[in-house]
């Protein structure tokens, strides 16, 4: 008999690589969308987003 914890760990073990691979697949689209922005704008956005996330 399998425990609930084992089932949850198995699901997380399957979900983690799937999410990671999907992220790597979408990343080139993200870089293409950012190509029209300059580096300072991207840096400023990331700084503000990080500060908002920490609050």
The strand count comes to 0
Helix content: over 70%
Computed over alpha carbons, the radius of gyration is: 18 Å
| Main beta-sheet strand count, sense and barrel state | none
* Approximate shape: elongated
Mean pLDDT comes to 89
Annotation field: number of helices: 2
Which regions contain 5 or more consecutive residues with pLDDT less than 50?
Answer: none
* SSE pattern: HH
- How much of the sequence lies in strands comes to under 5%
Q: What is the terminal-to-terminal distance?
A: 44 Å
Structural class assignment: mainly alpha
Please characterize this protein's 3D structure:
- There is one protein chain.
- The chain is mainly α and 55 residues long.
- It has helices at residues 4-34, 39-54.
- Helix content is 85%, strand content 0%.
Short descriptors:
mainly alpha, 55 residues
Task: Give me a quick take on this structure.
The protein is mainly α. The protein is 85% helix and 0% strand.
How are the SSEs ordered, and which strands pair?
Elements: H1 4-34, H2 39-54
